[in-house]
User: Which sequence fits this backbone?
């Protein structure tokens, strides 16, 4: 799509910059780390909080970029973009808000120090 390619060149799309692309690597590591610890029966709340926080923030950024690219059409209730944007917001609220996830991570870091 021509509009999407133009937006990517202008930096409006997530992942259009190398730094954002590299930002996905630690996220994948935290998902696998949390899953491995859970499988081993070990405490994994900090790793799970990191994975949840990162996933919800990436989903929100992607949905917001999609809204930006598609403009007014993205606010029509029947559009997929509108549903994705609503689902991304729910990810920030469900399973503990992002603020709670940050508190869990901060408490773990303070204990380590």
Assistant:
């Amino acid at each position: 799509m021509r509009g999407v390619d133009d937006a990517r060149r202008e930096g409006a799309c997530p992942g259009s910059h190398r730094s954002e692309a590299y930002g996905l690597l630690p996220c994948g590591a935290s998902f696998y780390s949390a899953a491995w610890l859970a499988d081993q029966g070990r405490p994994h709340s900090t790793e799970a909080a990191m994975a949840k926080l990162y996933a919800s923030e990436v989903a929100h950024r992607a949905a917001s970029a999609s809204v930006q690219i598609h403009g007014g059409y993205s606010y029509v209730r029947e559009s997929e973009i509108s549903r994705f944007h609503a689902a991304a917001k729910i990810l920030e609220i469900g399973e503990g808000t992002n603020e709670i996830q940050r508190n869990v991570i901060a408490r773990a870091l303070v204990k380590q120090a």
In short: Residues 45-70 form the longest helix (26 residues).
